Amino acid sequence: SVGFKAGVKDYRLTYYTPDYETKDTDILAAFRVTPQPGVPAEEAGAAVAAESSTGTWTTVWTDGLTSLDRYKGRCYHIEAVVGEENQYICYVAYPLDLFEEGSVTNMFTSIVGNVFGFKALRALRLEDLRIPPAYSKTFL
Fold first, then answer.
1. Looking at the domain assignment, is residue 1 inside a domain?
2. In which domain, by residue range, is 51 found?
3. Residue whose C-alpha is closest to residue 53's, from 99, 20, 17
4. Residue 42 lies in a domain
5. Is residue 88 a part of any domain in this protein?
6. Burial of 57: CB neighbours in 10 Å, binned 0-12, 13-18, 19+
7. Tally of domains in the chain
8. CA distance to 25, 101, 102, 123, 131, per residue, from 12 (Å)
9. What predicted TM-score, i.e. pTM, was given to this entire model?
10. Residue 101 gets which letter from DSSP?
């Protein structure tokens, strides 16, 4: 039996962007993801990008007030983990505009605060994080 049934939105349509070229100013995260049975890796990676940035499982009235492209996280690359069944490294790029300047708390709350209990995933672990100089300089 499938342990997850997709919600109202298919995250792949908006948050999986394999053609995206990362910017020097993006915060880049690498997550080890184990999707629930029946959930494709692209949907799992896109769900992490969505839920750790601007996504929600349903349409809300504020959707039209901001530019989604400006703030959304993007799952831009997925690799299978060698020797592990149904495990992937999902690479997610976050635009700097998503985060409050000079706030580690805000950054980590956004990136890891909401995604670890997400039902589409059996397991999730943040493996690596690249913080660009443009964001580091906001702490001076």
1. no
2. 7-137
3. 99
4. yes
5. yes
6. middle
7. 1
8. 24, 29, 31, 19, 25
9. 0.83
10. T
